[in-house]
Amino acid sequence: MKTIVIATRNRGKLREMRAAFKNLPLEIVSLDRFGDLPDAVEDGKTFADNALIKAKFFMELTGLACIADDSGLCVDALDGMPGVYSARYASLRSTVDLDHAHDSTDGDNNRMLLDELARIGVEQSSAAYKCALCFVDIDGTVVETEGKCRGTIKKIPRGTGGFGYDPYFYTDADKTMAELTLEQKDRISHRGEALRKMVEILEGKF
Predict the structure, then answer these.
(1) What pLDDT, in 10s, does the model give residues 128-175?
(2) Would you put residue 79 in left (φ > 0), alpha (ψ -120 to 50) or beta?
(3) Could you give the angle at the alpha carbon of 66 between the alpha carbons of 65 and 70, nearest 5°?
(4) CA-to-CA distance for 129 and 83, rounded, in angstroms?
(5) Interstrand relation of 2-6 and 169-170 (parallel, antiparallel or unpaired)
(6) What pTM was estimated for this model as a whole?
(7) Residue 125 burial (CB count, 10 A)
(8) What is the C-alpha separation between 79 and 76, in angstroms, rounded?
(9) Which CATH fold would you assign to the domain 2-203?
(10) How far is CA 81 from CA 42, 46, 90, 95, 166, in A?
C-alpha cells in the first residue's frame, strides 16, 4: 500500500482529504507524523503555484509522495482578496512582507474580512472559494487539479461546522458552508471538486 503525506496541519482539510481517498489503496498520513517540520515558503502568485511549492517541499523532506492544496476565498468587491493570502489575511495589517506573513486564526481573518467590507461600505459581495490541488510522487510525477465554488459573502455568520470563512460564505441553497454536513460540503465545494478530479486520476495509477 502506497503512503501519501497530506501537506497540511489543518484538521478540517485533513478530514476532507481522508474521506475523499478512503476507497483507494493508500495510507494517508499527516505532517504530524514527522515532528516539527519547517513550513514551506508559499511565495507563489497563484493557488496552483503554492500547491506545487508545498507538495515538492514536503515530498523532499519526508521522502514520500505528497499531496498539497492551496485554497482560499476571492471576494469580488475586494478585487479578489484575500486570495492566496486567505490563511494569513489578518497578518497583512501589520506587515509589508506579504509572502512571509504568518498564518492567522480563523477569527482574526474573518474580522479582517468584515472590516474590509465595512471600509468600502459593502454589506455583501459575490465571491468564490478556489482550490488548487497538487500530487508529487518521488519519481517526479506531478498531477494538478482545480476546483471552484461560487457564493455570497454576508456579514451575519451561520453554522458551527467547517473552518476558515465558511460561516460567512452563503451557497446557492442559502446555507453557509458551516451549516452543511461533510458530505453536502464535499458535493459542492471547491476542494471537493478538485479532490474528485484527483481521485479519478490517481485511481488509474494505484
Answers:
(1) 999 999 999 999 999 999 999 999 999 999 999 888 999 999 998 889
(2) left
(3) 160
(4) 9
(5) unpaired
(6) 0.87
(7) 15
(8) 5
(9) Maf protein (3.90.950)
(10) 16, 12, 12, 16, 16
Is 70 among the catalytic positions?
yes
The DSSP code for 122 is -
- pLDDT tens, 175-191? 999 999 888 888 899 99
Mean predicted lDDT score pLDDT of the chain: 91
Q: Is 152 exposed, middle or buried (0-12, 13-18, 19+ CB in 10 A)?
A: middle
Q: Where are the domains of the chain?
A: 2-203
Catalytic residue among 49, 70, 97, 99: 70
Q: Which residues contact 148 (CB under 8 A, 6 or more apart)?
A: 128, 129, 130, 131, 190, 193
pLDDT at 78: 97
Which of 119, 37, 41, 120 shows the shortest CA–CA distance to 84?
A: 41
Instruction: Specify whether the CB–CB gap between 101 and 95 falls below 8 A.
Output: yes
Grid coordinates given for 105: 486564526
In three-state secondary structure terms, 67 is strand
